[in-house]
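Notes from hallway chat w/ T.B., transcribed later so I don't forget. T.B. wanted the structure written out for a chain they're using in a teaching module, and asked if we could keep both sequence and C-alpha cells in one place. Agreed to drop them here.
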Amino acid sequence: MPLIFSQELDFPTNRVLDWLSFYNADYRKYTGLNLKDDFSFSDKKITISLGGINNENSIKIKDKNLDNVNPFPVWFRRPNIVSNPFIADFEYENTYPENLFNYALKQRNTVFWNYLGYKLESDNHLGSFKTISLNKPIVLELAQKFGLTIPSTLITNSKDDLTLFFETNNKRIITKSIEEIIPDYKHYINNEEYFYFYQITNLLESLDNTPSKFAPSLFQEYIDKKYEIRTVFVDGKCYSACIFTQINEDTKVDMRNRKANHFTRYMPYKLDSEIEVGVLKLMNHLELNFGVIDFIKSINNKYYFLEINPVGQYGDVSLYCNYGLHKKIAEFLIKNED
C-alpha cells in the first residue's frame, strides 16, 4: 500500500492518485490537515524505543506500531508540508524565552519527523524525506565536477566585487533567490511581494540603486538563450522538454513571469548523452531519485545547468510532452509494493 506525503491541493499528486484509483490500488495520502492521519500527532501519544539488551527498536503513534510500514512504497512528494502541523498549540510555561518557544517545539518535532522519514525510507521510495531544498552553491560546484557547464556565478555581499563582476559580464547580469525561505512566511506577505521576492529572476543592467552593504546574494552572467530545458528525473530516467520562452518578452528572463493563461510552447526534447550522464552522476551523488532540473541552451549551442528542485512541479512537462509521468509514478509505487 503506497504511502504518499504531500499537500492537499498539489495537482501532480492528485493526478497520481487518479491513476492509483484506476488500477484499484489502495494507498494512504498524508497532508497534515487530516486529524485522523497517523503521522499528524499534535493530539496523539508518540513513543520511540531504541536499544537495550534485546536491541528492540520501535516507533508508535497512539499505541500503533509503525515498524511494519517499512516495506511499503513511499512517495515523499512534499513532506515538509506534512511536518508543519506537527506543531501543536501548547500553553506557554516559561520553559524557554517566549519568543523562542515555538522554535523549540518545532525543533523537537523535527527530530521525530526525521526519524520517521528515516524509518519509512527504503529501496521502495521516490523523493526524499530529508531533501526538500538544496544548497545552490554546492549543487553548482557538484554539477561542474560531473561535467556540466554552469553560468559564471558570484555570491557576495560586497558592492565592489559585484561591480567588478558586473563589468566583466558586459554589464548584464541576473540575480535570483539564493535560498527558498519565503514559503514559510508566505502568509505574512501579499501575493505581489511573494512573487517578487521568492520566484522571479531579475535582470540587472545597472547597479545605481544597489546599496553598499547587502545580504549575501547570488548573481550570474546573463546568457542569451535559444530556449530553456526542463528535465524531470524519475528513478534514473530523464524526461525533458524544450520551452520556447524567448518568443514572449515577459518570459525571456524568467518563464514564471508570464501572464495568467498565457501559453508557452513546449516540445519533447532529448538531452545530449553526455549531459544525461552528468545528470545521473549528480543525482546519484545527491541520493535523489526524483527532481526537476533546469537548463538553458545558449545561442552558441552550449548547455548551461541552472539548478535542481527536489520537489519541483513536473505536470507541464508531462502534459505538453505526453510523457504520462503521473501514470509512470503510480506504476512505480504499485510495482515496488511487491
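Follow-up for T.B.: The mean pLDDT is 79. Might be a good example for the class.
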